[in-house]
Task: inverse folding
């Protein structure tokens, strides 16, 4: 079982990136999936998550209104569209199977993680 995060890169402030989390050996629509990020010297932050049905999504206050999470069950991927990027969005972004609720992006103790993709927002 593998999760593969991709789509990171270098972008100027105000720009956009689209991250994708692909599943191998795992059907992602059977799991709630979330995105975490971790910047150097900072704690890991749960950014967004989506339930199995896609009927509920959660966003941290820091990204609300700028990021959109979505499912593409045909391609077995979870995408994170990131708009109006800010330098403080710079981090390594990870996708994982999670618990997703009003309380935020929760850890799945028996969950699966992707390897991370670097997002750098800088002029």
Result:
């Amino acid at each position: 079982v593998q999760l593969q995060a991709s789509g990171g890169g270098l972008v100027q402030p105000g720009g956009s990136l689209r991250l994708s989390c692909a599943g191998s050996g795992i059907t992602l629509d059977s799991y709630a999936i979330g995105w975490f990020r971790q910047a150097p010297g900072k704690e890991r932050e749960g950014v967004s998550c989506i339930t199995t049905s896609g009927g509920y999504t959660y966003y941290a206050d820091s990204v609300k209104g700028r990021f959109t999470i979505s499912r593409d069950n045909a391609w077995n991927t979870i995408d994170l569209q990131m708009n109006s990027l800010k330098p403080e969005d710079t981090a390594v972004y990870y996708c994982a199977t999670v618990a997703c609720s009003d309380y935020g992006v929760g850890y799945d103790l028996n969950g699966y993680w992707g390897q991370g993709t670097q997002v750098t927002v800088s002029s």
In short: The mean pLDDT is 94. The longest strand covers residues 91-101. The two ends are 37 Å apart (CA to CA). The CA atoms of residues 48 and 58 lie 5 Å apart.
